[in-house]
Design brief:
The chain folds into two domains: 64 residues, no CATH class; 236 residues, Fumarylacetoacetate hydrolase, domain 2, CATH 3.90.850. 10% of the residues lie in helices and 38% in strands. The protein is built from six helices and 21 strands. A hairpin with an 8-residue loop joins strand 1 and strand 2. It binds 2-acetamido-2-deoxy-beta-D-glucopyranose (3 copies). One 2-acetamido-2-deoxy-beta-D-glucopyranose binds next to loops.
């Protein structure tokens, strides 16, 4: 369904060359160790994208070469990650918060960016680690002072974001092992590996402003978040317009747009991520972003799970199913 045929003519001897484009890409290391962009075709294989730069209408040209996918990587390498807090009303109510008047922007550091299927490493000081499944948008170019009407021109496409959070430093909470006054959004969400991004990048050409997409988060298969991007308070155009006001947002910056109700911190009783858990964040038309959770102990090194079972077809090929 991703293939579009384009006929190219060159010189007087018009010839027909079949050129294929894809509206969704993955980045991966193939089984011979070469890093590539590709369009996933099933069975663990991808057609290789021939140019990193998308076409003007934001799709990617693919050739005839098909290779085996080895390791799945983030589909883009963002300079840093921005995120929006409190952008779903059910999450705001559940956290006893007040709806912000403008998008509440915070940074997730560049070293928080993390590949699909790789272990999220929880440091010892994070005693209340929590998941947040989110829609991520990817900037197509450097953008500054963009109106809402022009905002989608700054969007290349969409990914799934996992905004892993250390509630300990985020909440105003002086309970055991949670020193400080809370409000440490950037600190509590910037630990290394705390921004998994993937598994595919799906073009804005296909998804538009990305409304109406089912978003679900599962922990060890247990459905914890079940919402739709239609419930975003500030949608994609508003976020892009606001955050580019007076500020250049660089090309390939990823913006995680906020999480709906159902995080572990608001469960009764609160249920934080455990060593060995597996988190799946699913967004319709994009795919499943899966990562295992492991704790880092200064005494014992990595505990928990560093490997997770998967079938790439399950992560990438049922983009419309809600299991
Ligand atoms: C929200 O407020 C209610 C009532 O005061 C309280 O029972 C609940 O624990 C609070 N929830 C959070 C996440 O702070
Ligand atoms: C998003 O796109 C849909 C479909 O094109 C449109 O109906 C809706 O108004 C858009 N939302 C915003 C906030 O622009
Ligand atoms: C998830 O949300 C959809 C839409 O509101 C609903 O139809 C479905 O029953 C929910 N699934 C579960 C398991 O709660």
């Amino acid at each position: 369904m991703w293939w579009i045929l384009v006929f190219a003519f060159a010189g007087s001897a018009a010839f027909e060359e079949e050129r294929t484009t894809a509206d969704a890409i993955i980045r991966f290391v193939d089984t011979t160790g070469v890093e590539r962009l590709g369009a996933y075709v099933g069975g663990g294989r991808a057609r290789v994208v021939t140019s990193e730069e998308p076409t003007p209408d934001k799709s990617w040209v693919v050739g005839d070469v098909v290779v085996e996918v080895g390791q799945l990587l983030t589909p883009v390498s963002p300079p840093y990650v921005l995120a929006i807090g409190l952008n779903y009303i059910d999450h705001i109510i559940a956290t006893n918060s007040t709806a912000p008047l403008t998008p509440a922007v915070f940074f997730k550091g560049s070293h928080s960016v993390h590949h699909p299927l790789s272990p999220i490493v929880i440091p010892e000081i994070s005693t209340k680690p929590d998941y947040e499944g989110e829609l991520g948008l990817v900037f197509s170019r450097d953008c500054k002072d963009i109106s809402e009407a022009d905002a989608l021109d700054c969007v290349l496409g969409y990914v799934v974001c996992h905004d892993v959070s250390a509630r300990c430093y985020q909440n105003e909470d002086d309970a055991d092992n949670c020193p400080g006054n809370g409000g440490q959004y950037s600190f509590s969400k910037s630990f290394d590996t705390h921004a998994p991004i993937g598994p595919r990048l799906v073009s804005v050409k296909t998804l538009g402003n990305a409304t109406g997409l089912t978003l679900q988060t599962r922990v060890n298969g247990d459905l914890r978040q079940n919402s739709t991007t239609s419930s975003l308070i500030f949608g994609v155009q508003q976020i892009v317009s606001f955050m580019t006001s007076g500020t250049t947002i660089p090309k390939h910056t990823v913006v995680c747009t906020g999480t709906p109700d159902g995080v572990g911190d608001t469960m009764d009783p609160p249920t934080y991520l455990q060593d060995g858990d597996v988190v799946d964040v699913y967004i319709e038309h994009i795919g499943v972003l899966r990562n295992p959770i492991t704790r880092l102990s200064t005494k014992h090194g990595l505990l928990g799970r560093t490997h997770v079972d998967f079938d790439l077809d399950d992560l990438l090929l049922f983009p419309s199913a809600t299991a």
